[in-house]
Design a protein that fits this description.
8-stranded mixed beta sheet, Rossmann fold, 395 residues
Length: 395
Amino acid sequence: MLTGKTVLLGVSSSIAAYKICNLARMLTKLGAEVHVAMTENTQNFVAPLTFETLTQHKCLIDTFDRNFEYSVEHVSIAKKADVVMIAPATANVIGKIANGIADDMLTTTVMACTCKKIIAPAMNHNMLHNPIVQNNIEKLRAFGYEIVEPVRGMLANRDIGDGKLPDEETLLEYIIREIAFEKDLEGRKILVTAGATRENLDPVRFITNHSSGKMGFAIARAAMLRGADVTVIAAHTDVEPPMFVNVVNAESAEDMFCAVKDYLGESDIIIKAAAVADYTPVNVADHKIKKSDGEMVIELKRTTDILKYIGEHKRSDQIVCGFSMETENVIENSRIKLEKKNCDMICANSIKKAGAGFGTDTNIITMITPYGDEEIELMSKFDAANIILSRLNEL
């Protein structure tokens, strides 16, 4: 995912520096070239050899170090870097950068970088909320630095408060969002539905389906990484929603329908990947139970056909994509759905194919448009999501 990209990690003297060792490892596993610039005091927490072993690059600490092939190191790395992340960023380093002080290898290199710079503060609760520190953070924001908000939790001194460095997975997502993909969807507003709606029969039971939300969330994450402004209307899902997207929760089909109507007008691309329960009780409070055998008898009615509504009310400049899960006559049934529901694309798959369908991390999809069919072979749902988005963007 990050092959050919160069990441500069700036590490300052906080106990949270240990987390960056794992971040460096995660980045290299994704193919990135990783360089680390440390303050001198950081060596009290993490040995430079640790980073050098993980990245296969000399750790930059001393501005006047002569133990390398000649180049002006802070300028050399600054030219190569696609993104800089300073994590953990202490109050001292934040103050220096915010006020233009470059008196060590880390701050000097950061000053020379023209790429995106991300700051992840980590410090004592009271220090973080000191007005001077907050003022310096706001200065950095004004200069175009992105701030990763620290989280609340147990700090190094055992106090519970703000100032904890987020986990490595969160830091990694900030870097991936910045450099992993070309921003070919920037300026686009994309609406995605995901997961399985639930129709309550009583306080205990409900009607639903096996949708996990994985495909919808894969589409949402891929669109976000490519620069889109993404809103996800999420019913019940088995996985966490992606970062950096607007999530609207929906329990029932009616909840989802109302949310879709709210966002329909402002969306450029609408992708209905949610599996909506087809039926809902007419009146749960009035359901009857047969006395003789205890069988529950409930009158049901069809839920709103959300995709049909979207197709009937879409603007001429909107693109609509639906999903079709079939057990037989997959292409024929899906093409009928494409026409009846006025969609621009239907992504069809068969629940009978191994590796496709509900709950899996992979999928096999046939993209059906008025111009023909295109099959996506077995691959991860994220990779399939990117192909779908590319085709929709072309439409």
